Amino acid sequence: MPVVHFPRQFMPYTDQNKTHTTDGSCVSDILNNLTLRFPDLIGPVFSQELHPLPFVGLFVNGLPITSEHDRRRPLDSNAELILINAVAGG
What we know:
Helix content: 10-25%
Strand order of the largest sheet: 2-1-5-3-4
Largest sheet: 5 strands, mixed
Number of strands: 5
Structural class: alpha+beta
Mean pLDDT: 93
């Protein structure tokens, strides 16, 4: 089953879990299941439509998910989804 990895900054919204294994055949399915399990992710991490907020990066097996097409593409059962928190600096 696909595994989702959370950065430390998002762990308050995931009951302090660093990872979560969930069912899903595509990114959209996984995000739906993920936010059903951890509804506190909606607002600070995802919009109501389950799109990552501007400061959040979403990657599957190292590739960025940037379009609706990416969100609907079938996933392998061993896919790794990684959420990252953008770092700003100057």
